[in-house]
Sequence to fold (68 residues):
Amino acid sequence: MGWAVGTALGLENLERAVLVVQSSMPVAVFNYLLAVRANREPEQVANLVMCSTLLSFVWLPAVLAWWL
Fold:
């Protein structure tokens, strides 16, 4: 998705690479803190943080191998 958006915006290679890597990163723990503070299903957000972090161990190397 990051690559498609970067291409649509006409970004240069380095800028597009940064966008691809950033969009491949796991969900931030900061989202969990906001969910706790707003009392908006923090358990579900915690599950998203955990799943996206575990998936990033496989996904990030695959994205970097494809990009490089």
Q: What stands out?
A: The CA atoms of residues 3 and 20 lie 6 Å apart. The chain has a mean pLDDT of 89. DSSP finds four helices and no strands in the chain.
